[in-house]
Amino acid sequence: MNALLALLPFFATTHEPDLTNIERLADSLYAYGSFDAAALEYKRLLYFSPHAVASQRRGDPESFEIIDTHFVNIKLALALYRNNEKNEADAILYSLEGPMVRMVRAVLLIEEGNPYLAARAVDSATCAVFGASAYRLRGWAYLEAKEFTRSASEFRKAGEDSLAMLVEDLKNLRLKNPRTARLLSILPGLGEAYAGRPLFGLWALAVNAGDTYLIINAILKQRYVDALLVYTFLWQRFYAGSMANADRFARDWNERTYKKTLDPIRERYGEREALRLDLAALKNLQTP
Fold first, then answer.
1. Contact 178, 247 (CB under 8 A)
2. Fewer CB under 10 Å: which end of the chain, C or N?
């Protein structure tokens, strides 16, 4: 790619390109999933754009359309992102400003698993420009961050009252506290049972009881080395493992509960469409 970019000045001196056709080609390549080639064409478009403007100012007979370089940079960043060149994409996106850029950043942050940062990216200025769309995006971001009260508030601002009521009720979900699960595991097996895995809890209790018996029996028979070995290699491992399992089972319980509850809401109210980010979605962001 660098070699091709190095040849651009040569082509610029021999032929003045049609910027509109370059952009159409880049958009077509993006639509077909050729993100690497699309990114190259967007870079070529950005390179030739200043030459076209200069040509117009000199009064050359051929007229060139002045492109929206801000919008092309956003499309370039998105093509790079889809091509897994995220560092370069981020460098472009975070060098740009404006409400549309913030909306794009927010969607990408949700895709990356940073919904709270996504909600923060959509600031009040962005909401003033995009209105309900921005509030709806913040609502989905807070929903993915499990900030249900804030999510409901944003959906209400977007005029989604029925969705807001459903989301607000989510704060009453019956969840397991991982910290409580660990504390209950002071008695091996109790934490696992609390976290919804009673059979695993019984197994943990039996194993730890057996290890404790071996230690006590070895001490009573004055086999202190044996007692130390059982304590070091068996008892500590299974006792600590019981606590770790209780914590993990509690978190797994919560994730399953969230998924079971949230998936119907996502599907019914079109989260996938709201978070869709392609060229058509970008075009819609141009005209809020």
1. yes
2. N
Task: Provide the phi-psi class of 222: left if phi over 0, else alpha when psi is between -120 and 50, else beta.
Answer: left
Report the predicted TM-score, pTM, of the whole model to 2 decimal places: 0.79
> Using CA atoms, how far apart are residues 12 and 48, in angstroms rounded to an integer?
7
